[in-house]
Amino acid sequence: MFIASSTVGPWQANCHVLHADRTTSAVVIDPGIDAAPMVTNTLAEHGWTLAGVLATHGHVDHIADAAALANRAGVPFWLHGGDAFMLARPSAGLGPESAPLLARLLGADELPAPDQFIDLSEQDTVEVAGLRLGVVPAPGHTPGCVLYRAEDDDGLVVWTGDVLFAGSIGRTDLPGGDPAAMRDSLGRILSTLPDGARLLPGHGPTTTLGRERATNPYLQPSFLEGTNL
Fold it and tell me: What is the pLDDT along the chain (229 residues), one digit of tens a residue?
């Protein structure tokens, strides 16, 4: 599996283009603000077509260009239904005070609707462009946060979105955030994923679960057993 990653937009979100061997199409995970040129250039460079658009959650820095890319290619956009309330009006996920900033960044506090929307709450896998991605619900940062997992020649790769970062975790004080749900999600990650899993967060550098288990303060028992976020 080929993964082309780039940071995009004012919040430096990570966007990933995935391609399976022996296929001529690719998928993109988390195409946020200003991601479309990177995605388009990557596809053109390799002669691939876009087969699907996926998001780890509904915050605008991860989905701003998602519907536009999906609609232009005539392909589906996958998002957990718990975050669908952010699709039309991104300030719904950041708070009403964010509306003026988003209007300056996007031209308006609204996003185009996807022509083909698939609710991930009904699916535990996504099979597209020769790839099989497991879908793992992980609420807390938002109600509809999910992880994507896939195997490649080097082992398990997990796209963690804004659930788990190198050295930190996603905030839970935005609309729909839930500290208790976040602790539960982190506990499930620790109990179900191997330490060798490579983690590709929504912001910041790649890490491994083993490294985070050992060093991330939010993955320690004292936090997971009830410390407030």
Answer: 999 999 999 999 999 999 999 999 999 999 999 999 999 999 999 999 999 999 999 999 999 999 999 999 999 999 999 999 999 999 999 999 999 999 999 999 999 999 999 999 989 999 999 999 999 999 999 999 999 999 998 899 999 999 999 999 999 999 999 999 999 999 999 999 999 999 999 999 999 999 999 999 999 999 998 754 4
Domain ranges of the chain: 2-224
Distance CA 67, CA 111 (A): 8
The verdict on pTM exceeding 0.85 is yes
Q: Which CATH number fits domain 2-224: 3.10.310.10, 1.10.3210.10, 1.25.40.10, 3.60.15.10?
A: 3.60.15.10
